[in-house]
Design a protein that fits this description.
By secondary structure, the chain is α+β, with helices and mostly antiparallel strands. The protein has a domain of 85 residues. 45% of the residues lie in helices and 24% in strands. It has 2 helices and 3 strands; from the N terminus they run ααβββ. The chain has a 3-stranded antiparallel β-sheet, covered by helices on one side. α1 packs antiparallel against α2. The longest helix is centred in the first third of the chain and has 40 residues. The termini are far apart.
């Protein structure tokens, strides 16, 4: 029977495997909680840009612009903001829509992740 030299042994220890597994699980759980919020934010941004670019709304009132956003929000199932949360101003030959909101994502016990989302349609 031959004895292997310690210098020729390679691999990971059980402790290293457990530690790496815990880090991987924490990253997956964090991703599962954060990704849906980022997807909803990107839907809101695309909706306000679509409303601002709509040529039919160039001469519309702010109430009509809010109604148009509400239709987009209903289709995309947006719950983070409503049409009343939009700031609507004139600029650049059309409407400029902007919003800002804070989302608190509970992680574990008293630990939460807070993300401030904001965007404007003219960016």
């Amino acid at each position: 029977m031959s004895v292997m030299n310690k210098a020729s042994q390679r691999g990971i220890t059980v402790t290293g495997l457990l530690f790496g597994g815990m880090i991987l699980v924490l990253l997956v759980v964090l991703g599962m909680k954060v990704v849906p919020e980022v997807i909803e934010y990107s839907k809101i941004v695309s909706d306000i840009k679509a409303v601002a670019a709509d040529p039919a709304l160039r001469d519309a009132s702010p109430a009509d612009v809010r109604k148009a956003f509400s239709r987009f929000a209903n289709i995309d199932v947006i719950s983070a903001i409503t049409a009343q949360d939009l700031e609507i101003t004139r600029g650049g030959g059309g409407w400029v829509l902007s919003f800002a909101y804070r989302k608190e994502i509970p992680l574990v016990g008293p630990v939460s992740l807070v993300i401030d989302f904001e965007a404007t349609s003219d960016q």
